[in-house]
């Protein structure tokens, strides 16, 4: 079974940027109810979609103060545990980040390690890519960031 996830957040000066559970050194960051980790938000939606279990807005609504400044790594663990308790096993994850700045290449290994650990996967089953928007649109103007994720899961026997 395959799921697709997408997330988007506005960027602003003075906010923090967390991607894949890694704090990124940047003067701009995500504006969000939680920690704004677009990578993990897209990943959770992909996993939930593959299992036909709704989306993160249903499981962790931004109208609930309990999730204010929530750590997306902890939320991802909850989603992984939900899949496991319903006899699903994650096979692989492929994530694409779309942002103009900052460059994230030096953070990719740490992101992959975090994701592999929380999803109970070997590193070679997690892929992270990044691309710019060639200075076009809101992403090109560094006003926002998007993430896309494809997840494959199987029924555990």
Write a structural description.
It is a single chain. The protein is of the alpha+beta class and 157 residues long. The chain has one domain: 2-Layer Sandwich (60s Ribosomal Protein L30, Chain: A), CATH 3.30.1330. The protein is built from five helices and seven strands, in the order ββββαααβαβαβ. Strands 4-1-7-5-6 form a five-stranded mixed sheet. The chain has a two-stranded antiparallel ribbon with strand order 2-3. Helix 1 runs parallel beside helix 3. The model has no long low-confidence stretch (mean pLDDT 96).
Shape: globular
Overall pLDDT confidence: 96
- What is the fourth-level CATH superfamily? 2-C-methyl-D-erythritol 2,4-cyclodiphosphate synthase
> Sheet bearing the most strands, described?
5 strands, mixed
The oligomeric state of the chains shown is single chain
Low-confidence stretches: none
Distance between the termini: 15 Å
Indicate how many domains the architecture comprises.
Answer: 1
Which percent range describes the beta-strand content? 25-35%
Range of helix content: 25-40%
- Please provide the count of β strands: 7
């Amino acid at each position: 079974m395959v799921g697709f996830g997408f997330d988007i957040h506005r960027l602003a000066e003075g906010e923090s940027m967390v991607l894949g559970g890694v704090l990124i050194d940047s003067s701009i960051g995500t504006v969000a109810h939680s920690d704004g980790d677009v990578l993990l938000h897209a990943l959770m939606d992909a996993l939930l979609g593959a299992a036909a279990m709704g989306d993160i807005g249903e499981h962790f609504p931004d109208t609930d103060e309990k999730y204010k400044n929530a750590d997306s790594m902890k939320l991802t663990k909850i989603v992984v545990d939900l899949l496991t308790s319903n006899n699903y096993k994650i096979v692989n994850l492929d994530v694409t980040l779309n942002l103009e700045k900052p460059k994230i290449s030096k953070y990719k290994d740490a992101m992959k390690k975090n994701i592999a650990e929380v999803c109970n996967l070997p590193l070679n089953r997690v892929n992270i890519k990044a691309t710019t928007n060639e200075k076009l649109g809101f992403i090109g103007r560094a006003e926002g960031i998007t993430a896309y994720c494809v997840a494959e899961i199987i029924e555990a026997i």
